[in-house]
Amino acid sequence: MAERYIAFDVETPNRANDRMSAIGVAVVENGLVVEEFSTLVNPEAGFDWFNIQLTGITPEAAEQAPAFPELWQTLRPIFSSGLLVAHNAPFDMGVLAKCLRDYDIPWRRWADYACTVQMGRRRYPNLPNHRLDTLCAYLDIPLDHHRAGSDSRACAELLIDYMDHGLDPEQFRRHFKMV
Q1: In 3D, which of 163, 144, 130 has the Cα closest to residue 22?
Q2: pLDDT by residue (tens digit) across 163-177?
Q3: Considering its fold, how many domains does the chain have in total?
Q4: To 10 degrees, the CA torsion angle through 59, 62, 158, 31?
């Protein structure tokens, strides 16, 4: 059973969803957020108007940020230290896998993860939906939606709520093919 959870969220610059324009990480240990990290990412790719409107991240804002390979030096030890957790995790896992692939960065063939959407459906089945903003409003968790640092912190807080109410993240563990 994992005792360390790595809640993360990525924002993307365009509809290809194969690059990051921001990433946020919130590490949970013993029911508490013990570490947080967030940064813009230079996607080294074009931006779509929709993504700029959604995230507020412009090409100009991201151009001086580190690119993914540089960030991976910081992220790799964190991501390797516990169970990855994300809200709508297949999306975030997919972006991570594509970045690793496209930059030819070896990591793992498979990575385990848990999804707070799936956990939320089990814990709060009567909500109208299980979007991050809906769950955060219901549980009074602060959220500046589509800001990676805020989204990852909110995901961590959801995870803590679920565990406090008896849900075991191990029951939601899945495997994602990274290569």
Answers
A1: 144
A2: 999 999 999 999 999
A3: 1
A4: 180
